[in-house]
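Form P-L/3: holo structure prediction, ligand tetrahydrodeoxyuridine.
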Amino acid sequence: MGTAADWKENLIQAALEARKMAYAPYSHYCVGAALLTKSGEVYQGGNIENASYGATNCAERTAIFKAVSEGHRHFMAIAVAGGLAGQEPADYAYPCGICRQVLEEFADGDLVVLVAKDKEDYREYKLDELLPCGFGGGSIQ
Ligand code: THU
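OUTPUT (holo model):
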């Protein structure tokens, strides 16, 4: 029988695993994300850098785009962990502004964001705290 906190630890573990797949030959800063759908699936993503730096895709967006492209539209939570290649995360890696905006599109207002160093050391937010007064689909109706 699991505890209520298990799903958070599991999601952080999935983010840490995804981090190992990050492609970051330029910054050497590897990020992993794990996105939990409201129907219970987990989609993982790592950052994917490019020699043309602006073409880089963040870990969070990799995970979101994988999930959305497979038909998911509603998400409960995302875990994010980042740090220098070959090291454990030394600090909390907060989602960048673009990723916060992309999360906003599918957040239903209550998305949980776990910003983790490891399974025991993480900070928990609602997306609304990280992106107050966000611009969403309702804004343009
Ligand atoms: N990065 C992410 O993957 N997620 C974020 O929210 C912030 C930044 C990546 C992009 C780039 O590959 C590296 O971290 C350094 O900016």
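COMMENT: The longest strand covers residues 75-84.
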